[in-house]
């Protein structure tokens, strides 16, 4: 049965039983004092995951896209200029949202497979002598291409050009799976969601907002009601919500944070790196190429893989789902038909990953890919064996 298989799409991710159980709670009155005890630990725990002591955590019942909208509407006014590099589908969609909100978007076009170009940001910011650019928007982990960008380098470019713009970062597909250091990197707004590293269902946009970004909400003129930081923060400060909260998801978040902290964030990140490296070894053994151009850009949550010349990646994802009931990510935008994606984030073990690689190999063999069946699985197995950490202490 296909619903027994893990998914290997880069979010939403597999929901562990422990989190499904945590969300099986009866409705509670969100205006009762008990609600404070539900929400407050979640806001506190999220600070640790974002790597912020100074930032405020603000959540909305929305997906990550709602988080983007909240970030821009609470800090910017119509006609404000923002600087964004386009290097994949999600940086593209954020640009589109800014344009639809009447912002003046200065776009740095980059090849898909590359990352945020700190040097070109620096050039653009240095040229902006009157500081008309109000915000720089960066996608930390471009889920369409499997590229992780260097956020500290972007902040470095902003410092080098002595530019006061806000730094907004999309960490929807990285937070909770790869290190994120909001305060150290000087991020003003970081946007994420519940359905990837937090291993939950979709429905909670989670933002971390710096004091500098919060100060801008009083003068920002883009319209917002549902997403108004002031309403949410005001209600949260009194232990409430400005409208009906997604109670079950808040319970889920509390338990997700427990799981992440029990494993230890560093161990969570190391697990993702290790599983991802096994996938990369498999891809190399198949003789296929990653979309990410260089190893420093490799994402530990998703790998986008080019199919060989003359093959259509959509046929592969259709075959693996249609025949074996397993989901992998399709190629998005420019990558449609050219690349497929392997999601390797959230609740995942190396054994689960091996089942995914083995199943992909069957589908590739069915479609006559020039790939030796078993070669990728063996490469990943060898890497996982060589780096295994026993789950039980050996006698
Ligand atoms: N940003 C990135 C990097 C994503 O991967 C996604 C979704 O996959 C989004 C934004 C949009 O988030 P959502 O689908 O939760 O609205």
From TrEMBL:
The keyword Protein biosynthesis does not apply. It comes from the Bacteria. It holds the Pfam family Aminotran_5. InterPro entries: Aminotrans_V_dom, Aminotrans_V_PyrdxlP_BS, AspGlyoxATase, PyrdxlP-dep_Trfase, PyrdxlP-dep_Trfase_major, PyrdxlP-dep_Trfase_small, SP_NH2Trfase/AEP_transaminase. The modification N6-(pyridoxal phosphate)lysine is found at residue 196. Residues 42-287 form the Aminotransferase class V domain. Keywords: Aminotransferase, Pyridoxal phosphate, Pyruvate, Transferase. GO terms for biological process: glycine biosynthetic process, by transamination of glyoxylate. It is an enzyme of class 2 (transferase). Its EC number is 2.6.1.51. GO terms for molecular function: alanine-glyoxylate transaminase activity; L-serine-pyruvate transaminase activity. Its cofactor is pyridoxal 5'-phosphate. Substrate binds at residue 341. SUPFAM superfamilies: PLP-dependent transferases. The keyword Signal does not apply. Belongs to the class-V pyridoxal-phosphate-dependent aminotransferase family. This is Serine-pyruvate aminotransferase. It comes from Roseovarius mucosus.
């Amino acid at each position: 049965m296909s619903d027994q298989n893990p998914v290997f799409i880069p979010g939403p991710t597999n929901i562990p039983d422990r989190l499904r159980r945590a969300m099986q709670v009866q409705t509670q009155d969100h205006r009762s004092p008990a609600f404070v005890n539900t929400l407050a630990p979640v806001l506190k725990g999220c600070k640790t995951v974002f790597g912020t002591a100074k930032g405020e955590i603000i959540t909305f019942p929305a997906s990550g896209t709602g988080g983007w909208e909240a970030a821009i509407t609470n800090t910017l006014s119509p006609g404000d200029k923002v600087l964004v590099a386009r290097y994949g589908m999600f940086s593209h969609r954020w640009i589109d949202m800014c344009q639809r909100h009447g912002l003046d978007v200065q776009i740095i076009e980059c090849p898909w497979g590359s990352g945020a170009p700190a040097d070109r940001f620096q050039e653009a910011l240095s040229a902006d002598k009157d500081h008309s650019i109000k915000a720089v928007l960066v996608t930390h982990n471009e889920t369409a291409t499997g590229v992780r960008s260097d956020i500290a380098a972007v902040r470095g470019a902003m410092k080098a050009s002595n530019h006061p713009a806000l730094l907004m970062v999309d960490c929807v597909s990285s937070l909770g799976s790869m290190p994120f250091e909001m305060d150290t990197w000087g991020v003003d707004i970081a946007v994420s969601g519940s359905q990837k590293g937090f291993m939950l269902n979709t429905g909670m946009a989670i933002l971390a907002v710096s004091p500098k970004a919060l100060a801008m909400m009083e003068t920002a003129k883009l319209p917002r009601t549902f997403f108004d930081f002031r309403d949410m923060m005001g209600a949260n400060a009194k232990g409430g919500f400005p409208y009906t909260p997604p109670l079950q998801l808040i319970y889920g978040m509390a338990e997700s944070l427990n799981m992440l902290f029990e494993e230890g964030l560093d161990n969570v990140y190391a697990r993702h790196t290790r599983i991802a490296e096994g996938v990369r070894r498999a891809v190399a053994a198949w003789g296929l190429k990653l979309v990410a151009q260089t190893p420093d850009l490799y994402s530990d949550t998703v790998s986008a893989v080019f199919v060989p010349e003359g093959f259509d990646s959509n046929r592969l994802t259709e075959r693996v789902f249609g025949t074996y009931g397993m989901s992998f990510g399709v190629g998005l935008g420019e990558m449609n038909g050219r690349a497929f994606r392997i999601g390797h984030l959230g609740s995942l073990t190396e054994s689960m990953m091996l089942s995914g690689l083995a199943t992909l190999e069957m589908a590739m063999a069915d479609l006559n890919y020039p790939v030796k069946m078993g070669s990728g699985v063996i490469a990943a197995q060898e890497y996982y064996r060589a780096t295994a950490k026993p789950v039980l202490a050996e006698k």
